[in-house]
Amino acid sequence: MLDDGPFCDYVAGRLAGLPGVRAVTLGGSRAAGTNRPDSDWDFAVYYRGGFSPDSLRALGWPGTVFEIGGWGGGVFNGGAWLQVDGRKVDVHYRDLDDVEYRLAEARAGRFGIERLLFYLAGVPTYVVVAEIALNRVLRGDLARPAYPDALRAAAPPRWWGDAQATLGYGRAAYAARGRLVQTAGTIAVAACQAAHAVLAASGQWVTNEKELLDRAGLRDTDEIVAGLVPDPARLAGAVDAAEALLGAAVTRAGPPG
Question: Crossing angle for the helix pair 96-107 and 127-134, nearest 10 degrees?
Answer without folding.
Answer: 100
